[in-house]
């Protein structure tokens, strides 16, 4: 049914870069056979899943939305894909994204943007716009995203779906094509909070192949989502971040958010204001740290090891082949990030930019730690604005970067955060974000599920 739905609507939505119909049917038949043999199957056995194209899938094209990886078929599965297969889920294919997960609209995909199912002339968010749009268009019931600065939550918010960024290290990065290794976090996207929790439980948990993976049990996320669904938040204390009050957000977004805060109060939650004075420096710190790590990570795309290679005819040196390949294979936003990062890391500037940004990161972590001594979780709008029309923010990078104003602090800290639909503004979806302490992923599911 999902393959039929994709065939019927994806020429308009363009959520998928690659549909693996044959692989999906084969996986579905294998689940049927296991069931027929009387095997006990997990809760997601036979459930179709779309996977963001930045995640390696054995034998299935993986481009990260870039021309430089066109035609590359990875020889291995990411850990989270291994776990999806072991759970009996059926992979439908690979979802569209901004090139190397850099962007907030999918307009930077080298293969053309994804259209928001709510209004095909508007962006579906990014970088994981394909994963969110596939859910909103009923092309898949579950999808995988990755969140470095907001790429799971912001697309969730602007498509009226749920997106959760787990605690950094709670889900394995092994087999993700790296953007910013100290921030990248794979996580679940779904249409309901409980569905997201079910997917979270399947992909999460310690992985010895990722040195930053946390060797601790997965928090009880499914139980928490079900507890939240009873609609009782008595005794739960939620914090509104003073520094986020209205700053940069559209009035319609703030109105929907305030209504959601009222609803949370009626469910028994106590709401207080919490000051996080360093949050205002999160965006500039992120745009030094993430490009710095990206400039290092993307050095591996050299025309020799993976995908595209041009310049063999006429180039005078290996270095020239690499430079011609990288010039042809990377899009403008990726080049901007590589240049920014290379500059910030160069000797003489390192202390002034990268070193300074790392200090800010520590201060933001302290803000979170102090906040969670006062409240159980923080809440905010997920993103300052609803889905915008194509082209509205591409001419000024800063305007695009603002989409992640409220999501980025969490990445710098490393805690979990979820976006859940909380109403409409001008007929378009608005998301509410719940941020929790590291390894308290269950807490964010409880609060989000109660609101739903
Ligand atoms: N939009 C942010 C950026 O462009 C975040 C991207 C992400 O989370 N992958 O870097």
UniProtKB/TrEMBL annotation:
GO biological process: translation
One GO MF term attached to the UniProt entry: glutaminyl-tRNA synthase (glutamine-hydrolyzing) activity
Keywords: ATP-binding, Ligase, Nucleotide-binding, Protein biosynthesis, Transferase
GO cellular component, one term: glutamyl-tRNA(Gln) amidotransferase complex
Broad enzyme group: ligase
UniProt cross-references to Gene3D superfamilies, sorted A to Z: Amidase signature (AS) domain
Residue ranges of domain Amidase in the record: 1-443
Coiled coil: none
Recorded catalytic activity of this chain's protein: L-glutamyl-tRNA(Gln) + L-glutamine + ATP + H2O = L-glutaminyl-tRNA(Gln) + L-glutamate + ADP + phosphate + H(+)
E.C. designation(s): 6.3.5.7
Top-rank lineage group of the source organism: Bacteria
Pfam families associated with the record: Amidase
InterPro entries per the UniProt record, alphabetical: Amidase (IPR000120), Amidase_CS (IPR020556), Amidase_dom (IPR023631), AS_sf (IPR036928), GatA (IPR004412)
Catalytic-site annotation from UniProt: 52 (charge relay system), 127 (charge relay system), 151 (acyl-ester intermediate)
SUPFAM superfamilies in UniProt: Amidase signature (AS) enzymes
PANTHER family hit by this protein: GLUTAMYL-TRNA(GLN) AMIDOTRANSFERASE SUBUNIT A, TRANSAMIDASE
Matching NCBIfam families: gatA
Quaternary organization: Heterotrimer of A, B and C subunits.
Entry similarity comment: Belongs to the amidase family. GatA subfamily.
Function: Allows the formation of correctly charged Gln-tRNA(Gln) through the transamidation of misacylated Glu-tRNA(Gln) in organisms which lack glutaminyl-tRNA synthetase. The reaction takes place in the presence of glutamine and ATP through an activated gamma-phospho-Glu-tRNA(Gln).
Protein name (database record): Glutamyl-tRNA(Gln) amidotransferase subunit A
Lineage: Bacteria, Bacillati, Actinomycetota, Actinomycetes, Micromonosporales
């Amino acid at each position: 049914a999902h393959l039929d739905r994709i065939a019927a609507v994806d020429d308009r939505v363009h959520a998928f870069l690659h549909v693996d119909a044959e692989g999906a049917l084969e996986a579905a038949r294998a689940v049927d056979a296991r069931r027929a043999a009387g095997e006990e199957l997990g809760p997601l056995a036979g459930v179709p899943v779309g996977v963001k194209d930045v995640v390696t899938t054995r034998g299935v094209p993986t481009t990260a939305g870039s021309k430089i990886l066109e035609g590359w078929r990875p020889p291995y599965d990411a850990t989270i894909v291994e776990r999806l297969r072991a759970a009996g889920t059926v992979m439908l294919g690979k979802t569209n994204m901004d090139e190397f997960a850099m962007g907030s609209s999918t307009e930077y995909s080298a293969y053309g943007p994804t259209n928001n199912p709510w209004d095909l002339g508007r962006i579906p968010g990014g970088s994981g716009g394909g994963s969110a749009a596939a859910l909103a268009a009923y092309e898949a019931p579950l999808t995988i995203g990755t969140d470095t600065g907001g790429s799971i939550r912001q697309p969730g918010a602007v498509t009226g779906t749920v997106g959760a960024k787990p605690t950094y290290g709670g889900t394995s990065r092994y087999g993700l094509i790296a953007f910013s290794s100290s921030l990248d976090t794979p996580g679940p996207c779904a249409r309901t909070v409980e569905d997201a929790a079910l997917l979270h439980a399947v992909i999460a948990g310690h992985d010895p192949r990722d040195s930053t993976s946390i060797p601790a049990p997965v928090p009880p996320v499914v139980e928490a989502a079900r507890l939240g669904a009873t609609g009782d938040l008595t005794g739960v204390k939620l914090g509104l971040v003073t520094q986020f009050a209205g700053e940069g957000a559209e009035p319609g977004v703030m109105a929907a958010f305030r209504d959601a805060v009222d609803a949370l109060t009626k469910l028994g939650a106590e709401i207080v204001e919490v000051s996080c004075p360093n949050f205002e420096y999160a965006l500039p710190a992120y745009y030094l740290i993430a490009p710095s790590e990206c400039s290092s990570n993307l050095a591996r795309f050299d025309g020799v090891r993976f995908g595209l290679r041009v310049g063999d005819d006429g180039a005078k040196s290996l270095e020239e082949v690499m430079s011609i390949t990288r010039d042809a294979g990377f899009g403008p936003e990726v080049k901007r990030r590589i240049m920014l990062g290379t500059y910030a890391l160069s000797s003489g500037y390192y202390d002034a930019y990268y070193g300074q940004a790392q200090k800010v990161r520590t201060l933001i972590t302290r803000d979170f730690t102090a906040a969670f001594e006062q409240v159980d979780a923080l809440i905010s709008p997920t993103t300052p604005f609803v889905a915008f029309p194509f082209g509205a923010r591409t001419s000024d990078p800063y305007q695009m970067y603002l989409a992640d104003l409220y999501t980025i602090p969490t990445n710098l800290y490393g805690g979990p955060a979820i976006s859940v639909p909380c109403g409409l503004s001008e007929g378009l979806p608005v998301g509410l974000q719940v941020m929790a302490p590291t390894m308290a992923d269950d807490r964010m599911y409880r609060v989000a599920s109660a609101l739903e």
